[in-house]
Amino acid sequence: MTGDQHHSVRHRAALTGVLATALALAGCTASTTASSDSASESSAAASSSSSSSAATNDGTLAAANVLAANANASVLSDSEWPSSTATEVALEGTSASSDSDAVSSADGTVTITATGVYQLSGSLSGGIVVAAGDDALVVLILDGVNIDNSAGPAIWVQSADDVAISLAEGTTSTVSDADAYSDDADANAAIYSESDLTFTGTGSLQVSDAGNDGITSKKDLAVLSGDITVSAADDGLRGKNSLTIRGGQLDVTSGGDGLTSDEDADDTQGFIDIEDGDITVTAGGDGLSAQTDL
C-alpha cells in the first residue's frame, strides 16, 4: 500500500461476494452487488471482530442501535448551499478564467481559496486545488468537465471545513490522475480530500485512477446522489473516518478494496453506512471493508 498505509487489522469487518448483497437487502433499500477476484476470498465469508468497540454487534443489537453508537458523519446537503450564486470557472487547457479573486491558475493548477459555489466547465490538463480556510464551505459543480492530471490528483482538497462535489444535471464529467505515486505522497487518489467530502447532483462522473485510490477523504466521505463510475488501481472509495451512501448509482472496479473506511484510533469511526443506492463493486480485495461497522 502507498500513502499513509491505510489497511489496519486491529479490528475490522469485511464483506465479499454474495454476502454484500445480503447485507444491503436485509438492512436497507439499497441494491448492492460485490465480488472479489481474490482466491482467498472465494469462500464468500464475512468476518468481524473487535476487542473494545463502542458499537460492537453481538448479534442482539439492531443495526440502528449499532450505528447510533458511531460518531455523526458530516454530510453537506443541497439545502445548505444556493446553486444560483455559483461563480463560473472556465477550464482552458492548462489554465482557467474566472471573475472571482478566489480563483487563480498557474502551471496547470487551478486554485480556489475561499468559501463559495464554483461551477466548473471545460477541460484542464492539470489539477484543481481547494486551499480555503478551515471554516470554509466550498462547492464544486462539475458541468461536463474533463480534468486529467499526469502529476497527481485531478481534484485535491488541501484545506476547508466541508466540500461538496455536485454533478450538473445532464452532464458527464471525467477525472484522471497520475500513473503512480511515491510511498510518501501527501495525496494519492484521483479525487483526494483532507476535509469532509460529499457527492451530490444528478449528473455522471467517471473517475479513472492508475496510481492508487479512486476517491479518498481523510475525514468523512458521503455519496447522496449521482451516477459515479470508479476504476482504481487500489481502493475505489475510501472515507477514513466514515463512508456514507444515501443514494445514487455506484459502479466500482478496484484492485484493492471496493468501499472502505479504516480509522482505527476511534471506535466510533471507521464505519460504512449504506442507506440507499444502486451499488456494484468488483474488487481484488474486499468488496466492503470497515474498521468497525458495516
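(the above was protein one; protein two follows)
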Amino acid sequence: MLDMGFEPQIRKIVEQMDMPPQGVRQTMLFSATFPKEIQKLASDFLSNYVFLAVGRVGSSTDLIVQRVEFVHDTDKRSHLMDLLHAQRANGVHGKQYLTLVFVETKKGADSLEHWLCMNGFPATTIHGDRTQQVSLM
C-alpha cells in the first residue's frame, strides 16, 4: 500500500482517528518486503516491535525461478502460451508446475484467467473483488 501512495492515509488513520495511543493498542504490520519506508513506518507506529523475517531479507528463495521477459503488448498472450507449453513439455511426469502471472488490472486478471482455462491451463485469480475462499478454489 505504501508504494501506491497510501502512507498519508495510513498515518491519518493511526494518528488522528479514535485510535488508542501507541503502547496501549496492539498494532501489527505485515509486509512481503521491508524497505526503509516500511521500517520508518514501523518505528513510528509500533513500540518495542519484533521484526520476523522468513528467509533472507531482500531476496527470494532459491526454490523459485524468477524471469523477466520484455514482450510487445500484441505478443503477450502467445508468448505466455509458448512458455507454458514449454514448461509442460520439459516438466517431470506427474509434477505440477505453478506459474504466477502479474497483470495491471482486476479485469485483465479475470480475462487472462478465462483465456488460460479455455486453452487448457487451469488458472485462478487473486484480487480484491474476490473473496479469499473463492481465490483458493
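Reviewer note on protein two: The mean pLDDT is 80.
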